Amino acid sequence: MAILTFETLSFAKKERQIEVTLLKLFKTSIPQEEIETIALFELRDSHTLSFNHQDQEKIETKFFFLLTKYFDHLTNKLTGNKATYIHKNSGIPLIGNVAFGIVHRGSSIIEIKPVTSCNLDCIYCSISEGLFSTKNDFVVEKDYLIGELKKVLDFVDEEIEIHIGVQGEPFLYADMENLISDLQAMKKVHTISIDTNGTLLTKEKIDSLAENKKLQLNLSLDALDEETAKKMAGAKSYNIKHVKEIIAYATKKLNVIVAPVLTEGYNEQEMEKIINWIKTLHPQPKLGIQNFLHYKTGRTPSREIPWEKFYALLETWEKKYDLKLHWRKEDFKVREVRDLPKPFKVGDVVKAVIKCVDRFPGSVIAVTQDRTISVPHCEFKKDKKIKIQIMRDKHNIFAGKPT
Ligand code: SF4
Questions:
Q1: Which end of the chain has the lower number of beta carbons within 10 A, N or C?
Q2: CATH superfamily placement of domain 349-402
Q3: Could you report the per-residue pLDDT of 311-332, keeping only the tens digit for each?
C-alpha cells in the first residue's frame, strides 16, 4: 500500500471527480479514472490517498505528474478566476513580478507576496482587487518563498524588515502563520510587517501570531460608522464591530498601526471619530492616516486631496488631539541596502519561455535568467519560446514586448 499525505492539499470526492483544494482557497478537479490509471485508490481522510500498490516512489511520481497537469486548471474558490501555483518545481522564479514572490527595491524593506486575492472590494483599492476582480491569481509555495528569500537576504547581508504586502488580503493565504514563524526565525529579519483588513483575524489567531515578537500588524480602519464602513469596504458583510474588537485586542499583544484611507466625499467625517477612539485604547496603536491616491490600475471613487491640504489637515488634528499623525520615511528608519543585479536592462532583447498567464487577462509571464518578465498582449502557449524586448527593468520588475 502506498500512502500519500499532504498538508497543503485536501481532497473530496465529487461524483467521478476528485476535487483537490490547495491551501483552502484554490481548487482543481482530477477525473477519478485518471487517478485509477496509477492504481486503485481510496480517500483515507481529506488529506490522504492510499493506493493499492507497493511502490511508494513510483506512485508519488505518477501522482505528482497528474497534480501538475491539473494545477494548470486551478481556480480561486472566492472568484472563480484562474490561478497559478508557483512552487519550486514550477520553473517560475520569484523575482520579476510585482504581484507575487519577492520585490526588493534596494531599501531595507523587502516585500514578499505569497498570494493574490481579496475578500473585500474597497472603493479606493489601488489594484482593483476583490470579489469582483477578473484578474488571474497567484499562490506561492511557502518553502519555495522562504528558500528564495534566504538567498536574497544572504546577498543583502544586513538586517532588514520583511513587509508582507500582498495584492489582496494576506490572511487568505492558509500558510500565513507558518510563513510568519519561519520569518521570525530568520536572524537577518528584524521586523515583519503585514497589511491586513483584519476581517479574517480572531482573538485566538492573534494569540498565536503574538508568539512572533518581530511582527507588526498594519490594520485598515476607514470609518467607525457602520454604513460608511461597509461602503468603504465595498462589502455588505463587512463587520466594523469585529474589526474594532480585533484592533483593540491586537494592540495589547503586538505592534499595531491603524491605517485609514482618507477618501474625499466618503469618510472625512470619520477621521476625528477614529482619532478619538484610538485615544481610548491602551496601549495606544500608531495612527497612520493615508491620502487616497489614484492609480492607473485602481478604483477611483473621488479626487485626490492635494498634499498641501492633506498635511494641513493632519497638522490641525495633531494639535487638536495631541497625537502624532504625520509619519515620515525617517520615522521608519528606511535606508538603502545592496540592490540585486539586473540580468538584463531596458532595450535588451532576450530569449525567454512562456510559463503562465500574468495578472491581467491577455498577458503572460515569460521566464529567463532567474527572472520573470510580464508580456502584455501575448497569447498564452505554455513552454513556447519567444524573443522579448525589455521595456521596464525598474527594481528588477520586468516587462517587455515580443519581437
Ligand atoms: S482590503 Fe486591500 S486589497 Fe482588499 S479590496 Fe481593500 S484595499 Fe484592496
A1: C
A2: Nucleic acid-binding proteins (2.40.50.140)
A3: 999 999 999 999 999 998 888 8
